[in-house]
Each structure stands twice: as structure tokens, then as C-alpha cells.
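Workshop exercise sheet. Pairs work together: one partner reads the sequence aloud, the other fills in the structure field after running the prediction. Swap roles for the next sheet.
Pair: D.N. / O.F.
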Amino acid sequence: MRPAADLPLVVAAIFRFLTPAAERDEVLFDLGAEYRHRRTTEGAAAARWWVWRQALRSAPSLLRRSWWRGVTGFEPHRSLANRTHWPTIRHLCAGPAVPIMSSFETP
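Structure field:
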């Protein structure tokens, strides 16, 4: 049995809608496995409370992330990785601080 099949229908629908297609199966599988584990160890009511809390707390960030990723599955163009490397790329494209020809000039 697939763990995602154990999730409440509305919770599963929220995650199916907000999670990018490339990650949807993994997220639903992991969420369903954790839900099943909590249901057997803590009880059905505690597991339902946990999964609904996960859905409601995750929805804003998933919505924001899916807005930027769009349908293609790419990260946003202004992701943290791009901003971190931007000074290095800008420095490399600027060229040398001293013009190259000045080192070959004779006095």
C-alpha cells in the first residue's frame, strides 16, 4: 500500500496542487509515511492534527515557491545561489584592474 493513499483527501490535494511536479511523488510519499507512523504510534487524532498543521504551515511557502518555479521546474532566477556568486562573476567580467598594455610599455 502506498503511504500517500492514507492521507486525508483534502491534505493530499493541497500538496498535489502546491508541490512542483518534479517533487510531488516524493513529498506525498514522505508525508504519507510520516502520517502512517504517527497514526500507529500517537493515534489517529494526533496524526490528523499533525498532518493538517503541516499542510497549513507549508502552504504559503509552497505557493510562493511554485509561483517562481512556474511550470518548468527551474529555481527562481534570483535564487540564493545566484546572488552568492554574483560578485565573483561580476569581478571576472570586469577584467583586470590594470590595463594589460601598460605592463608592456617602456619608459
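Discussion prompt: Residues 3-76 form one domain. What would you look at next?
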